[in-house]
Amino acid sequence: PIPAPIPVRAATPAKHKPRNFPVGVSFIAGLIFVFNWHPWKSVMDYEFPVPLAGKYQVVLDSDAPQFGGFDRIDDSMEFFTYEKDGGHYLRVYNISRSVQIFQLVD
Hints:
By secondary structure, the protein is mainly β. 0% of the residues lie in helices and 45% in strands. It has strands at 23-28, 31-36, 43-50, 55-61, 78-80, 82-84, 87-94, 98-104. It starts with 22 loop residues before the first strand and ends with a strand.
């Protein structure tokens, strides 16, 4: 079943996210869209809550060579949720000028 969209404010540690940093997370049709509109700053260990626990995988990466990107994300990587403050979270490398779309696979 596809969970209902939930509002989210990504919880990135302040040392990694300057004020007014143009990043975001959206949940649409069971997919997670992770955006970074900054022209050059990427965010290591970008942390955000997710509706379901489990294993996630990238299903689309705008930084892939076929989209004119620099191929900075390994699409074969698996991302596992962890519990924090009573919720489920993911941590990813949020690269500049890109969007990655994640799907729950297990």
